[in-house]
C-alpha cells in the first residue's frame, strides 16, 4: 500500500467550469457500486459511480473518493475494501450509501463481516474484496487502486438488470434497452 501521490507536476490553470463539467457527465451513464471499509472506528459505506476495471492480470480496479465524503478519511486509512456491484433490485442499498447523515449500519440484518474482517452487504449481486495498492491525488478527489483478492460472483444464469446512474437518477439496464 502506498501513500497518496500528490506530485501531479502541473499547474492546471483555467479550464472548463465545475458546472459545465458536471453537466457533461450528467448524460454519461455509469454503473453503481457501494464501497465499504473499516479501520476499527466503525464501518463506512459510500455509493460510487466511478468504479472500473483496469487490468485482468493482475486483477485491478479503480474508484475515486471525494474530499467531501464522510467516508473518505476511513478509506484513506484502510488496507482493504469491499466493492459491491449492484443490480437494480439493490437500489435501496445504493440510496443508503448515498444518503448523508444517516447510520448506514443501523440495520444489522443487512450486513455482516467476512472472515477477514471486512464489512459486506450479502444482498449485493456481486462483491469484490481487495487490497488498496495505490492512492493518487486528483484535484479534490483521490483515485484508489485495488488489487482484487476474492469475490462473490453472480450466477451466469441470473440475468439481473444492473443499476445505472444517469442524469441524476437511478435506472435499471434491461433487455429492452439493448441496441444490438
Write out key terms for the chains shown:
8-stranded mixed β-sheet, 39% strand, 3 helices, 180 residues, mainly beta, Pnp Oxidase, Chain A, 13% helix
Please characterize this protein's 3D structure:
It is a single chain. With 180 residues, the protein is mainly β. The protein has one domain: Electron Transport, Fmn-binding Protein, Chain A (Pnp Oxidase, Chain A). Helices cover 13% and strands 39% of the residues. Strands 1, 3, 4, 5, 6, 7, 10 and 11 form an eight-stranded mixed beta sheet that branches. The longest helix is centred in the first third of the chain and has 9 residues, at 18-26.
Helical segment count: 3
Q: What's the total number of strands?
A: 13
Mean pLDDT, all residues: 88
According to CATH, what is the topology? Pnp Oxidase, Chain A
Beginning-to-end CA distance, first to last residue: 42 Å
Q: Looking at this structure, what is the CATH superfamily? A: Electron Transport, Fmn-binding Protein, Chain A
CATH class wording: Mainly Beta
What is the CA-atom radius of gyration, in angstroms? 17 Å
Secondary-structure content class: mainly beta
Residues in β-strands, percent: 35-45%
Amino acid at each position: 500500500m502506498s501513500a497518496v501521490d500528490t506530485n501531479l507536476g502541473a499547474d492546471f490553470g483555467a479550464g472548463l467550469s465545475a458546472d459545465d463539467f458536471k453537466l457533461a457527465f450528467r448524460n454519461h451513464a455509469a454503473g453503481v457500486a457501494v464501497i465499504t471499509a473499516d479501520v476499527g472506528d466503525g464501518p463506512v459505506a459510500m455509493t460510487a459511480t466511478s468504479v472500473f476495471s483496469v487490468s485482468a492480470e493482475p486483477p485491478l480496479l479503480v474508484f475515486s473518493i471525494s474530499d467531501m465524503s464522510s467516508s473518505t478519511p476511513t478509506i484513506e486509512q484502510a488496507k482493504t475494501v469491499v466493492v459491491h456491484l449492484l443490480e437494480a433490485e439493490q437500489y435501496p442499498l445504493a440510496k443508503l450509501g448515498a444518503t448523508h447523515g444517516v447510520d448506514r449500519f443501523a440495520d444489522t440484518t443487512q450486513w455482516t463481516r467476512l472472515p477477514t474482517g471486512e464489512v459486506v452487504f450479502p444482498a449485493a449481486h456481486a462483491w469484490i474484496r481487495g487490497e488498496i495498492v495505490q492512492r493518487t491525488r486528483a484535484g479534490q478527489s483521490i483515485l484508489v487502486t485495488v488489487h482484487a483478492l476474492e469475490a462473490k460472483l453472480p450466477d451466469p444464469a441470473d440475468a439481473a438488470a444492473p443499476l445505472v446512474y444517469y442524469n441524476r437518477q437511478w435506472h435499471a439496464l434491461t433487455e429492452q434497452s439493448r441496441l444490438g
